[in-house]
Amino acid sequence: MLSPAGIPAVAPGPRNGGETEPVKPGDIVMLHESEDGESDATVEFACDEEPHMLKPPFAPGYASLHLGQQLTDLNRGPQPFWEPGPGQGDYEIVRKLGWGQEASVWLARRLENSSQTSFVAIKVLTSAVTRAIGRKESFELPALFAIDDGDMNHPGRPYCTLLLDLFIYSDMHGLHYCLVFEPLSLSLDKYIEAERSEGRDFGFSMEGLRNIVRQVLLAVSYAHAIGFVHTDIKSNNIFIDVGLWNEAIAKYLAEHPSRTYPARHEPNISSDPIITVMSEPLPPFNLPDRNRLRLKLGDFGVGALSFVPFVTT
C-alpha cells in the first residue's frame, strides 16, 4: 500500500472495517511495485518494529542503525549550527530505547577519552521529518535552541529536556537530524503500564499527583517564557529522570545485553539480511517512592510559537 513521503507506511486495520492505521510491530506492509509499467507485484513484509528497511514513499525513512555502530566525524553542516560542549563528540550505539512516528531513540556511549564511561540518548529523526525541518514546518529545533538559550535561573528549566549535541546522519534514506539528550527512563504512561502488569495495586497519592502536576506546570511555564507552547502534553511525553547514573547504566547493560530480532530475508526489499534492534528502555534506577518521581517534559516537535507575527502588504 503506497504511502506518501512523510506518512508512515500503513497496513489494513483488521478491527476497524478496513481503515488504515500507522505501522505497529507485527503489521504486514504491502509494497506495490511495477516493473513493466503494466502489472503490479505485491510484496508482504511483517515489521518487527519501525519499518527502517523501507525507503520513502513506503515509509518516512527511519535510520537503520545497529548495535556497536560508531558515529564519528560527525556532520554539523557547512556552517555549524551547533557547537558541542566539553566532552561531546563521537558516539557508539549500545541500545535502542524506543521509536515513534517521527524518530527512533538510541542509547549511546561517548567515545571521548575519559576515565569514566558516560552515556547519552540520541533521537534520530526520520528523513521525512528532517526535510520538514528544512522547510521550516517543524518547531522542534527552534524550541530546543530557545530552551538551551533561555533563563538559566527559571525554575522550570530543570524539568525540560535539554539539547546536548546536534549533528546530521546520512544513510540510504537521506539525511537525519540527530538530537542528543541526557538518558531518560520510561515515559510516565509506560511506567504506569509496567507497574500494573506486575499485578501491583498501583496508584498515586494526592501528594504524588501534585508532584507530577507541579513539575509539568513549571516546564510549561518555562516554554511559555521563551515563546513556545507545547501542544501535546500527555503522559507518554513526560519522562522519568534517572539522573546521572552512568555506572548504573553500564552495570545494567552488562547484566541485560541489548538484543536484536532474528535476521529476516526478503530480497524484494533488501539484498542484505534485515536486522532490527529491539526497543528496550532503561529502568528507573534508584527510583524513589512513586509519589516523589523526578520528571522531564519532552518531545517539543509538537510545539508551536506562542506569537506568530502578522504581516501585511
TrEMBL record:
The keyword ATP-binding applies. GO terms for biological process: regulation of mRNA processing; spliceosomal complex assembly. PROSITE patterns: PROTEIN_KINASE_DOM (PS50011), PROTEIN_KINASE_ST (PS00108). Gene3D superfamilies: Phosphorylase Kinase, domain 1, Transferase(Phosphotransferase) domain 1. Residues 91-313 form the Protein kinase domain. InterPro entries: Kinase-like_dom_sf, Prot_kinase_dom, Ser/Thr_kinase_AS, SRPK. It holds the Pfam family Pkinase. One of its GO terms (molecular function) is ATP binding. Its EC number is 2.7.11.1. It catalyses: L-seryl-[protein] + ATP = O-phospho-L-seryl-[protein] + ADP + H(+); L-threonyl-[protein] + ATP = O-phospho-L-threonyl-[protein] + ADP + H(+). Residues 1-25 are annotated as: Disordered. The keyword Metal-binding does not apply. Keywords: ATP-binding, Kinase, Nucleotide-binding, Serine/threonine-protein kinase, Transferase. PANTHER family: PROTEIN KINASE DOMAIN-CONTAINING PROTEIN-RELATED. This is non-specific serine/threonine protein kinase. It comes from Candolleomyces eurysporus.
